[in-house]
């Protein structure tokens, strides 16, 4: 039976995903068979992988996919057994072990998830039986005491697996010592006994200035701070949610090809543009106002979990008209999945996949395609060719697209400099990205250098850099000692009252 560790947080976006990813690679370097795990992920950023039992295509959170890459393990549904994909503020579509499993209303979030907990615990137990170490990532804060009775992703999971737990706090936001002490204090005695230490994330400055606070925190809680990770401007990986969009790196230079990515309210799989962010002659910006399209060479309409609602939003903001004007004025446009469907003639939802049965909308009319939502979700890992080069990607959608007179492009359509594809992730392929950039640059009268960046190599380099940071600033040997000792905290100072 393998061992496990829970990386929890004081808040959302404290850095749990980044720390978990770094730990996965660091432990893998030491010869351990490592698997990532997140019992429940709430994100519209997902990835297609293969179920090792059935051989069927399956869907998991993108963060767990990249953590599996970091662990040098094959991604599989057990690593993220429950994925909630918000379709509105009060309703989420549920994916269990990689396959659609209905929906969850806001009122059911507290008490209506027993079956999801059972699936999550079974998946964790399965992974632990096959790997040396399962590095688990929590969700949000572990001190959400209003949800504790039905929790299975934070301390509920830790109790199930008797997992030593480390708590990550973001010092860049301020108040990290209070949040760490308060987080521990709000837990009940049994939960507190599983918390083994703290990790401070995103620190800037002289770490020596923290010494009094680190000492006081240990005296007050009986738990050590196992590491202080520095704040790094260029540290970013495949993110879980759109909170990270504004911190993406941007290349600014004279003559750069300017790409405007529309920030849809229910944007999904925005990692589709990650590779463009690394190109030296490409400037990427995220926009939600038609005036921000001024000066853009290319407009990208990304994927969305609510195509009809986001199309209505696009029109209400004036962005729909602005995108059409941009295209008719000679600018390039790329629509991906739901964004591609918006560029077509019509979208119909006869089965109420996104809301009311029979709903429909007229598209922007830039491509000769018609979309109809089907009941069954399409999950695929397609390969093929486009623009004279090999291409690959992944598909996650209910929409079935019927193409008219336009030419084919990656399972979608093309008319001049307007492109639409159902394939997420296609721009991660270096050859396809270079060919597409040359096409759109020529269409708008610009030149771009291509072939200077390898996205897969850059991803590996960033994972290794993250692991280097973990090795340097986090006490990995202490983590390994925790894994070897499953006893509770009797050797420390006990619990807080």
Index terms:
497 residues; Rossmann fold; six-stranded parallel sheet; six-stranded mixed sheet; 26 strands; globular; cobalamin biosynthesis; GATase_3
Structure commentary:
- By secondary structure, this protein is an alpha/beta fold.
- Helices cover 29% and strands 28% of the residues.
- The strands form 7 sheets. Strands 2-9-1-10-11-12 form a 6-stranded parallel beta sheet, with helices on both faces. The chain has a 6-stranded mixed beta sheet with strand order 15-13-16-18-26-25, sandwiched between helices.
- A hairpin with a 4-residue loop joins strand 6 and strand 7 (91-96).
- The radius of gyration is 23 Å and the shape is globular.
Would you summarize the structure shown here?
With 497 residues, the chain is an alpha/beta fold. The protein is built from 14 helices and 26 strands.
Going by CATH, the homologous superfamily of the largest domain would be P-loop containing nucleotide triphosphate hydrolases
The number of distinct structural domains comes to 2
Strand line-up of the largest beta sheet: 2-9-1-10-11-12
Q: What is the number of beta strands?
A: 26
**Span between termini:** 34 Å
How many strands, which pairing sense, and closed or not: the largest β-sheet? 6 strands, parallel
| Low-pLDDT stretches | 487-493
What is the count of DSSP helices, taking H or I runs of 4+ residues? Answer: 14
CATH class of the largest domain: Alpha Beta
Rg over alpha carbons: 23 Å
Helix-and-strand structural type: alpha/beta
* CATH-derived topology of the largest domain: Rossmann fold
Could you report the average pLDDT, rounded to the nearest whole number?
91
